[in-house]
Design brief:
Length: about 280
């Protein structure tokens, strides 16, 4: 695994596959202003394959483009130089900024997006069928009820984390957001199947470094107590932070303090670490 950036292009190989540069010409708004980009926006393609995404971005009639596409096997295609403004965010807002294209590198991951249960399987909007093994049920951060989502592959997530790490080091990236966060109500990508909060923790804050969780381990766990209290501070006498978590709920491990483990579901709080079953680490 050795990726580098030279002249605003990603070069090298990941998973033994060379990064490909396949430009979508005339689909950018010129160079970034000085000091930009400092942001990454994560997307899903809502399509079946890498080639369908590449063809969409090359289509002169479709006003969209992105810097990178990451395929399901972790291979990477760059379509716009990192020094130029691509068209991926559209109407968008994050804190004091609007029109995030002017500040952000856009990374697209090949993923079908939200799926509809149908005859024992799940259907994407473009008609392809997906089976249980590739589908999770989860609540989107902008929604209140669970729905079905195409999963990302481990290679795809690893490639995305690696690319974000390199981009941060090369461009001083300070912000990583999902399209769903800068255009809520209009966009739902990358959705709950993507570990967006963990990506931010790993790349931007490095908080995992002092949590006792090694960098190459997963930081997820499953609640084993039937109802687990969530507290505002790492203490049994601290006030409760909202409703307890039900048994079987997947949580993300954020920070450790003695027997207390800070976790994230859609919220953060402190739970007693004895009532968590930590995942077996995977590379
Ligand atoms: Zn998007």
């Amino acid at each position: 695994m050795a990726l580098t950036i030279a002249s605003n292009r990603l070069t090298g190989a990941l998973f033994d596959k060379e990064v490909l540069f396949d430009p979508c010409e005339h689909k950018d708004s010129g160079p970034f202003d000085t000091g930009e980009p400092d942001t990454i926006v994560i997307h899903f393609t809502a399509g079946p394959t890498l080639s369908s995404a590449v063809n969409t971005f090359k289509n002169p009639d479709i006003e969209s483009s992105a810097h990178l596409i990451i395929d399901r096997d972790g291979s990477i295609v760059q379509m716009v130089d990192f020094g130029r403004i691509a068209w991926h965010a559209g109407t968008s807002r994050w804190q004091e900024r609007s029109s995030l294209n002017r500040y952000a590198i856009g990374i697209e991951l090949v993923n079908a997006g939200e799926l509809t249960p149908s005859g024992g399987g799940y259907l994407a909007w473009f008609g392809r069928r997906y089976e249980d093994a590739e589908v999770i049920q989860a609540i989107h951060r902008n929604q209140t009820v669970p729905s079905y989502w195409h999963t990302y592959t481990a290679e795809q997530i690893e490639a995305c984390f690696e690319v974000c790490r390199i981009l941060k080091n090369s461009y001083g990236i300070r912000t990583i957001v999902g399209h769903e966060e800068i255009a809520p109500g209009r966009k739902i990508d990358p959705g709950p199947a993507f570990p967006l909060d963990r990506l931010r923790d790993r790349i931007l804050t490095g908080r995992h470094a002092d949590t006792g969780i090694a960098e190459d381990e997963t930081a997820d766990a499953t609640v084993t107590a039937s109802l687990l209290n969530v507290r505002a501070q790492p203490s049994g006498s601290a006030p409760l932070a909202g409703d307890p978590i039900e048994k079987g709920t997947r949580v993300e491990l954020v920070e450790r303090n003695g027997v207390w483990q800070k976790v994230r579901i859609c919220r953060e709080g402190w739970v007693h670490g004895d009532y968590l079953q930590t995942d077996t680490p995977v590379g």
